[in-house]
């Protein structure tokens, strides 16, 4: 039995959900966690204009009020020529699988989120991503250099695996992020789609696991 989390580090609702998912993983340590990246705006090429930025700030306000997590609005609005392409950051999560899994991988996922939303860093840049991810891995007890991580991130096989994640997200029928699923003996059960508190998630897990016990 395992949890499957489908999300994108540059999805604001996934950012808010991260704290709740970390709390859930701590409560149910016997459940394995698999992370699948969804690529909410993977491959985007359009420059985000002021109207597009303001639209996203509306979502950020709602996420902030529910989660209490910080957002660096000033850095976001000041960034010029920003292309909101989420493929690079999703690929960083896939690259991190070379070094970690489960809760440690989730810590990398959340560090990448924090880098974008709270620190205002450019998480479309491979060198920035490698610095964030390698730092998070070392904090989780996994020794990896920034250069080694960058090589993993830039590798052709990592790019291909990231595309396979996007395809798997679609195959799982995921229509929005974040989505949390439970897999048991080849069958997949919907836990929740969208933001939810850890208490609501745990209650839903108990509802699903009851008939399976």
From TrEMBL:
InterPro entries attached to this UniProt entry: DSBA-like_thioredoxin_dom, Thioredoxin-like_sf
Membrane-crossing residue ranges in chain numbering: none
Residue span(s) of domain DSBA-like thioredoxin: 8-205
PANTHER family reported for this sequence: DSBA FAMILY PROTEIN (PTHR13887:SF54), GLUTATHIONE S-TRANSFERASE KAPPA (PTHR13887)
Protein name per its UniProtKB record: DSBA-like thioredoxin domain-containing protein
